[in-house]
Amino acid sequence: MQMADRLTKTYEASSQPIASIRSSVLRVVVDALEANGISANKRLSKRGLSRETLDDPYIPVSLKNYIAFFEDVATETAQPSLGIRLGEAIKPEDLGPIGVLYTMMQTLRLAILRFCRFFPALQSSTRLGLIIEGDATWLEYQIDDPSIWPRRQDAEFTMALICALTRSRLGRGWGPEEVHFEHAAPRGHRDLSQFFGAVIRYEQPTNRMLISNDDLDLPFASANPAAIAIIEQHLIDLIGDGAVQTFADAVANAIMRCMKQGELTLELVASRLGIGPRTLQRRLTAEGKTFREVVQKQRHRTAEVLLKNERLSLGAVAGKLGYADAPTMSRAFRTWTGQSPRAFSKQKSSQ
After folding, report:
1. Which of 115, 96, 128, 121 minimizes the C-alpha distance to 27?
2. To the nearest whole number, what is the mean pLDDT of the chain?
């Protein structure tokens, strides 16, 4: 049996309908712990994770359990900057084919685009992509499931590893121009500013990095076009259609960007996608969805993330979601969840 066939069958046999992450990423965290004399067995068991899965880097494990494990480790070992520290130390080969492919591309832009395209080979139910807003280009990262919270360590780890991969080719002095995180500013957050060498903003709608357009076109010294096709085919064999984004997903991304700009209409969303409103509606209908359904789903998702931030007023949350006022948003939220925004926020803060 060929290697690619084995990997594809392993993926199909073990794929789950829940958000998942490859055990190879969990292995990075576990190995780092044990290198520092910290046993991971009990912490893995506590979160329903099996050590046996670490022997096969392609086995998917629960993303929710992995992130909870990551948070447990950071808290119990008193290492609040654990995600940054592990991301900084990442090597391309630690991420398997997707990490190696990153270093083989001709430019930073192509490396990031390929990384985003094949990211489902590492992690599902997650948004990762380059977003253009005027003259600014952002790399955005967000887990779709709002119930997976807190997730500070994963966010900082992911942003740090992308920086580390880039620095492995452009030099240790490279850095983004600005970095945003969903979570609140942690104590002693100077570690993050020092690592990224950029302005850090917290309590933002999503995790993202602002990357200079000039930097995106910088060449990678070790580009290897001959090997790229081989690795890409391996990743395609591994994830099948998992790397293909539906049109509804593209619409949801455009909706999220419009909400950030403070105005949400069908015309604006269609404009961001470079199509007309009727074309947008027709293509959604072909996927069995409506524009209203996609808007409500994205608003629900974003609302749950924003309401975890106790400092935001309901009016501020309503504004970020594109609602005219807090009462309108509250009625919608009650329809989605069966409870008021305040009740939801209090419930999450007490957990």
Report:
1. 96
2. 85
CA distance 72 to 101: 31
What topology does CATH give the domain 247-350? Arc Repressor Mutant, subunit A (1.10.10)
Assign 3-state DSSP to the chain and report helix, strand, coil percentages, each to 5: 60, 10, 30
125, 144 in Cβ contact below 8 A? yes
> Are residues 176 and 163 in contact, defined by beta-carbon separation less than 8 angstroms?
yes
Q: At what angle do helices 97-104 and 152-170 cross, to 10 degrees?
A: 40
pLDDT per position as a tens digit, 53-100: 888 887 888 898 899 999 999 999 999 999 999 999 988 988 889 999
Q: What are phi and psi of 140, to 5 degrees?
A: -105, 145
Sign of CA dihedral 212, 216, 217, 223: positive
> Tokens 């945003």, residue?
180
SS3 225: helix
Query: Does the pLDDT at position 253 exceed 50?
Result: yes
Averaged over 277-292, what is the pLDDT? 89
Each residue of 203-246: pLDDT tens digit?
998 999 999 999 999 998 777 777 888 888 878 776 654 444 57
DSSP SS3 for 47? coil
Q: What is the mean pLDDT of residues 159-183?
A: 95
Q: What is the pLDDT of residue 256?
A: 81
Alpha-carbon radius of gyration of the chain: 20
The amino acid occupying position 317 is V
Q: How far is CA 55 from CA 4, 52, 137, in A?
A: 18, 6, 38
**Predicted structure pTM score:** 0.69
Pairwise CA distance, residues 204 & 305, whole Å:
10
Q: What is the dihedral of CA 255, 256, 262, 267, to 10 degrees?
A: -10
What residue spans in the chain does CATH classification 1.10.10.60 cover? 247-350
Residue 11, pLDDT > 50, answer no
Burial of 187 (0-12, 13-18, 19+ CB in 10 A): exposed
Helix axes 326-337, 314-321, angle to 10 degrees: 80
